[in-house]
Design goal:
The protein is of the alpha+beta class and 196 residues long. It is built from 4 helices and 15 strands. The strands form 3 sheets. A 6-stranded mixed β-sheet has the order 3-2-1-6-5-4. A hairpin with a 4-residue loop joins strand 5 and strand 6.
């Protein structure tokens, strides 16, 4: 009898189960308040280009991807999908979100950059949402914008090229840097002396 009870209580995490729980929440999910028990890993992977995969197959339904993105949570270097009662681990190749466009208003120090992600988040580059750039060993830059609670979006290549057109040289940390202004904040991209 006891064996039957335990067999009924063991629940394997599934995408369908997560969806049912998230749809019950009204408004933006307060994932920062949720600390459910870890239920194991689920075969969901977010590729560098922002494509979500489930069981090795791309998830083609944008509303489903947007729903999953709304329950993303980062703890250290690990990423999870969380609901009030379940937390499952997923794999992320680079950043969990992808910035696919931006708007620029104003110029110079008065410029404001607002980014849009593939999952329709809109984020202004400001003190709470900084732009950062990592340069790999080949010299290739990877630009990011902080979206929410430890979650960054990789800025796609076409948007980065457009951003470069808005850049300027400014003194930063005692050196001349090429970077961007937004909301009165300067975001350094590369030292001016390192430009070709």
């Amino acid at each position: 009898m006891a064996k039957g009870i335990w067999a009924q209580m063991i629940v394997k995490p599934s995408a369908e189960g997560l969806l049912q729980q998230v749809r019950a929440v009204k408004g933006p999910p307060p994932v920062h308040l949720w600390n459910p028990p870890f239920c194991g890993d689920i075969d969901i992977r977010i590729a560098r280009d922002g494509t979500w995969f489930y069981l090795g197959t791309p998830i083609g339904r944008a509303p489903l991807v947007k729903l999953f993105a709304s329950i993303l949570k980062r703890e250290g270097d690990d990423y999870f999908l969380v609901t009030p009662v379940e937390k499952v681990g997923i794999r992320v190749d680079d950043a969990p979100l992808l910035a696919v466009d931006f708007t620029a208003t104003g110029t110079g120090r008065d410029q404001t950059l607002t980014f849009t992600t593939k999952t329709e988040d809109e984020v202004p580059a400001d003190a709470d949402h900084p732009i950062t750039v990592k340069i790999d060993e080949t010299g290739e830059p990877s630009p990011y914008i902080h979206v929410r609670r430890g979650l960054n979006a990789l800025i796609d290549r076409k948007s980065f090229y457009r951003l470069i057109e808005l850049g300027c040289h400014e003194a930063h940390s005692g050196e001349s840097w090429f970077g961007l202004w937004s909301h009165g904040q300067f975001y350094p991209i590369i030292r001016s002396a390192e430009l070709p």
